[in-house]
Design goal:
With about 475 residues, the protein is of the alpha/beta class. The protein has three domains: about 40-105 and about 110-125, no CATH class; about 135-220, 2-Layer Sandwich (Beta-Lactamase); about 225-474, P-loop containing nucleotide triphosphate hydrolases (Rossmann fold, 3-Layer(aba) Sandwich). The chain has helices at about 5-10, 15-55, 65-80, 80-100, 115-120, 130, 165-180, 225-230, 240-250, 265-275, 295, 315-325, 340-350, 365-375, 385-395, 445-455, 460-465, 470-474, and strands at about 140-145, 145-150, 155-160, 190-195, 200-205, 215, 255-260, 280-285, 300-305, 330-335, 355-360, 400-405, 410-420, 425-435, 440. A nine-stranded mixed beta sheet has the order 9-8-10-11-7-12-13-14-15, with helices on both faces. Strand 5 and strand 6 form a beta hairpin. Helix 4 crosses helix 5. The protein is elongated.
């Protein structure tokens, strides 16, 4: 080999290679160490979670009665009872102290303490505990597979949290149905349960939907009145619209509310009921307790029915039969459905004026036909045209349409139903103009409506006769 070639060849040095390898390892060591620590912390947390789950699920007590009481206490903690949740959290904290884990680091946990992390995993709702901890404006929590969406003030957004595995959602589903004496399994692949605060939870899984779902419609503790809905932060209506609603309530018109989900139908119904005299007998019929009138209006003379569609002995038909025997002055039917449409129509035509309900319809003009279609499913030989006329004249005096506009719930239309020339007509008493952000009053009450107001609310009739609300607008 020539001398020039020997000078260009670099000889391998074990010492130099070892030095380069050490420098490379020291550069990547912090990142790898952090990854190993996070992975190891998560693995250990899962192991401790299973250990705590086994510890809590083991029957406790010397007698069968004590073991039964403990099982009930565990179920009550799962469903949200504060005292039982506090007791279970204390049991988990004691277990952590016995294991000497109170100072052990498990990586970056989104929970304040290890006890709360284990509680959320075993008894609580996992990461939903973090979502539910911020109730400001929260109306609904939607879980699809591992993804979580939050509905706040009518707007749905992707949550900052999500489940790690679908099995975590399925575990929450089983916990929720346990206390409600329901089930969700391959034979019954859905369930509806109630939380302690009245929030309604709808569950699906086992192939009924492509992924397990969990939807929590939260019970809002806010007490809505018509005055509240006029405030700038809500602006569902203005002062003139509120005054018109009070005249409608006092005049005992039968009312119907339409609108998409989360447009504020329930809030409007509760605000209208709040304006009714406390001594008037009101009977409510719901598929699930949602209005919570007894809780929000303890002084009102109200009877609340929860009608189970699948139970003939306690279904809507039986609820209506019993309700009509309890001398109701008004009936509040949360939502007209196929099987009870005929009964509600009969109730409204037999002296229970001032009643209120909601129905799914694309517009006010479609409401009488929609109710007629549901009545025709009864199988009786009825003339649909006669039924539509009857509903227009006796069941749907006044209609309210709710809509979400620019993230704000608006009462966009108030109409009076009329039957003219064999068809349904709607007088636009109030209409919201989106471009001008104001409510206008295009039409007046019909002569029939004015006579009803004159009989029931003379003061309101005099106000309208003097040109209100158009003069007030000018």
């Amino acid at each position: 080999m020539s001398a020039g070639l020997r000078t260009r060849v670099k000889r391998f040095s074990p010492a130099a290679y070892a030095a380069e390898l050490q420098i490379s390892n020291s550069a990547t060591a912090p990142v790898a160490s952090e990854e190993r620590e996070a992975s190891g912390g998560l693995t250990r947390l899962r192991a401790y979670t299973e250990e705590v789950r086994q510890m809590l699920s083991t029957p406790r007590g010397w007698s069968e009665e004590e073991r039964r009481q403990y099982a009930e206490k565990l179920n009550r903690a799962i469903i949200g009872f504060p005292q039982e949740r506090a007791e279970m959290l204390a049991i988990i904290s004691d277990w952590i102290i016995r294991k000497r884990l109170q100072h052990v680091q498990f990586g970056s946990l989104p929970y304040p303490t290890l006890a709360e992390a284990l509680f959320a995993e075993v008894i609580g709702m996992n990461v939903l505990e973090l979502v539910l901890s911020n109730r400001e404006g929260l109306e609904e929590v939607q879980v699809v597979g591992t993804r979580i969406f939050e509905v706040r003030d009518g707007r749905a957004t992707a949550s900052a949290f999500r489940f790690q595995e679908v099995s975590e959602v399925e575990r929450i589903q089983q916990n929720l149905v346990l206390f409600n004496n329901d089930r969700i399994n391959p034979r019954k692949r859905w369930a509806e349960v109630l939380l302690l605060d009245g929030s309604r939870v709808t569950l699906t899984g086992f192939g009924f939907t492509a992924q397990p779902t969990l939807t929590i419609r939260l019970y809002t503790v806010k007490k809505f009145s018509l005055d509240t809905l006029c405030r700038p932060e809500y602006r569902t209506m203005d002062e003139r619209v509120k005054q018109l609603l009070l005249i409608i309530v006092r005049s005992r018109f039968n009312m119907v509310v339409i609108g998409a989900t989360n447009t504020g139908k329930t809030h409007l119904i509760k605000a209208l009921i709040a304006a009714m005299p406390d001594e008037e007998r009101i009977v409510t019929i719901e598929g699930r307790y949602e209005l919570m009138l007894g809780r929000d209006f303890p002084d009102k003379n109200v009877v609340e029915y929860e009608a189970e569609e699948d139970d003939p002995l306690h279904g809507p038909r039986q609820a209506f039969k019993l309700a009509l025997r309890q001398s109701p002055q008004r009936i509040c039917h949360a939502e007209i459905r196929d099987e009870d449409a005929n009964i509600y129509v009969r109730a409204c035509t037999r002296g229970h004026e001032g009643s209120i309900t909601s129905v799914h319809a694309s517009g006010l003009e479609d409401v009488p036909d929609t109710i007629t279609d549901m009545c025709m499913l009864d199988g009786r030989g009825m003339n649909p045209l006669t039924m539509t006329r009857r509903i227009t004249e006796h069941v749907t005096h006044i209609g309210f349409e709710m809509r979400m506009i620019g993230g704000v719930r608006r009462l966009v239309r108030i109409g009076e139903f009329e039957w003219r020339d064999g068809t349904v007509h709607v007088r636009d008493l109030v209409r919201y103009e989106e471009g001008e952000d104001c409510w206008i009053f295009p039409d007046e009450f019909s002569s029939k409506g004015l006579r009803k107001i004159q009989r029931a609310d003379p003061e309101g009739y005099r106000l309208i006769a003097d040109g209100w609300p158009k003069e007030a607008a000018s």
